[in-house]
Amino acid sequence: SPVIWWIRRDLRLADNPALTAAVNTGAPVIPVYILDAQDEALGAAPKFRLGLGLEHFSGVLEKAGSRLILRRGGALEVLRELISETGAGAVHWSRLYDPQAIARDTEVKQQLKAQGAAARSHGGRLLFEPWSVETKTGGMYKVFTPFWKSVRVRDVDSLRPAPSEIPAPDTWPASEEISDWKMGAAMRRGADVVARYCRVGEAAAQDRLDEFLEDKVSAYKECRDFPGEDATSGLSENLAWGEISPHRLWHLGRAAMEQGGSGAETFLKEVVWREFAYHLVYHSPHILTESWRQEWRDFPWSHEDTPQFQAWQRGQTGYGFVDAAMRELYVTGKMHNRARMIVASFLTKHLMIHWKCGMDWFADTLVDWDPAANAMGWQWVAGSGPDAAPFFRVFNPSGQLDKFDPSGVYTRRWIAEGQGQPPRSALDFFDAAPRSWNLAPDMPRANPVISLQAGRDRALAAYHESRENG
Ligand code: FAD
Question: Gene3D superfamilies from the xrefs (predicted)?
Answer without folding.
Answer: 1.25.40.80, DNA Cyclobutane Dipyrimidine Photolyase, subunit A, domain 3, HUPs
